Every structure is written in C-alpha cells, then in structure tokens.
Amino acid sequence: xxxxxxxxxxxxxxxxxxxxxxxxxxxxxxxxxxxxxxxxxxxxxxxxxxxxxxxxxxxxxxxxxxxxxxxxxxxxxxxxxxxxxxxxxxxxxxxxxxxxxxxxxxxxxxxxxxxxxxxxxxxxxxx
Length: 127
Prior knowledge:
Layout: H1 2-19, H2 23-40, H3 43-49, E1 50-52, H4 58-71, E2 77-89, E3 92-101, E4 104-115, E5 118-123
Parallel strand pairs: 1-5
Antiparallel strand pairs: 2-3, 3-4, 4-5
Helix pairs in contact: 2-3
C-alpha cells in the first residue's frame, strides 16, 4: 500500500511538472508573439506584448503606432526570428532578434522583463 502512495505522489508531481511552462518558454512565447504582431502590423498585439517606454499610456502607444504605420506604408518587416535568449536575472532576459526590413537584415537586442505576472518586450530605448 505504501508503494502505491509513493508512486501516486511521484506521478502527480510528474504531471504537475509537465503541465507548466518554464520561464524560458514563456519568454520565447512572448517575444515570438510580439515579432508576429510586428510582421502582421497587429497594433493591439504589439501593445499587449510590449512595454514601449516612450509612451507610458497604452492608448497613446496605440495611437502613435497607428500613425507610424499610416505614414510609413512602405515599411515591411518580414522573416523575424529569435537568434539568442540570454537570462540576465530572475526577472529579466535579453532577446536578440533578426528581421528583414525592406530587404535589409537587421539585428536588434531587446530587454524582456517580468512586470507583475507577465513578461513584456521592452521597446523604445536607445541601444
């Protein structure tokens, strides 16, 4: 009987461990979702997955992004990918990405920080 209890506890721990994403996976998901939003010009998702330090107000951030896309209709970002994800500490990562903008390959690094309960790509900083 004791063996069954121990086996049951081990099985429960295994199932709980399998059902949760690791921090690295969560960060990769956020960065990937943000890059997909950039490629598709999905402003709502860009605002959802990023914290743009130039615009503390999310409504202003949406408005500015809309005007940027309206004015710069020739700006096409394609083929985004995460090149490297480096853990800085428990609440911050650095994501190095590559993208093609108007045919030119660009490599950028963004901080990704945990804010309250979610991870956000930090954009708008000079690097």
